[in-house]
Amino acid sequence: MKPFILLDPGHGGIINGVYQTPGKRSPLWSNGSQLFEGECNRAITQGISQALTLRGIENKIIVPELEDISLPTRVRRANHVATQHPEHQCLLISVHANAGGGSGFEIYTSRGQTNSDIIADHLTHAFTQVFPNKPLRCDYSDGDSDKERGFYMLRKTHMAAVLTENFFMDNEVECYLILMSAKGRQKIIDYHVRGILAWVKEEKGKQ
Predict the structure, then answer these.
(1) pLDDT at position 134, please?
(2) Is 197 exposed, middle or buried (0-12, 13-18, 19+ CB in 10 A)?
(3) Beta carbons of 25 and 34 less than 8 angstroms apart
(4) CA dihedral defined by 50, 54, 60, 61, rounded to 10 degrees?
């Protein structure tokens, strides 16, 4: 089956200078800068989409709007695409930035052993290639790298689905040097694309 990648940029964007999601932003840093997570997530998913398109891999950003679309609507859109493309193997990647104190990378799947664990491992490995000196916040207690949670986007979608948490927006170094920089965002895009390509190659090998 051909792959079809669904990209979900978490939260809302900025419309006429107004951020669409309450909270979900960095502190106001000493230099006057501030990250709005939804804007960052959109920039990253746009970059992933462009890179996949150049490689001939079908993909769709399920929230192209700048408004903060509800989780049930996001799930309905993802499941509708999967229904419309039964000849494809769909994969959902929901892109976020982390907060709450800490550093590094986390990836989440739904609970239990599923096909989502496979793509999670590919993305984790790709992260270590692109960011070899950055922390991995993984849970290997069940033999794989993902953390398992009952997140709505992961529970309700009818396909393999993962949620990536890309560094901490309340960590000034990570926020300013990675999440708010063109170079840092490109590296986040690059590791997603590497992981997706590795998953596509593995799945083709099974056919």
Answers:
(1) 96
(2) middle
(3) yes
(4) -10
Decide: 55 and 196 in contact? Cβ < 8 Å: no
CB 5 within 8 A of CB 57: yes
Mean pLDDT by 10 residues, the chain (207 residues): 96 98 95 96 98 98 98 98 95 98 96 92 97 91 84 97 98 96 98 98 82
Give which of 155, 151, 32 is closest to 96, Cα–Cα.
151
User: Residue 112 — left, alpha, or beta (φ > 0 → left; ψ -120 to 50 → alpha)?
Assistant: left
- CATH 3.30.70.1070 assigned to 2-206: no
Write out the two tokens for 12: 């809302």
DSSP string, 123-163: HHHHHHHHSTTS-B----TTSSS-EE---HHHHH-SSEEEE
Which pair of tokens denotes residue 71? 């989780």
The overall pTM is greater than 0.70:
yes
Q: Delimit the domains of the chain by residue range.
A: 2-206
Q: What amino acid occupies position 80?
A: H
Q: Quote the pLDDT of residue 1.
A: 86
Residues 55/2, Cβ–Cβ less than 8 Å: no
Pairing relationship of beta strands 14-15 and 18-19 according to DSSP bridges: antiparallel
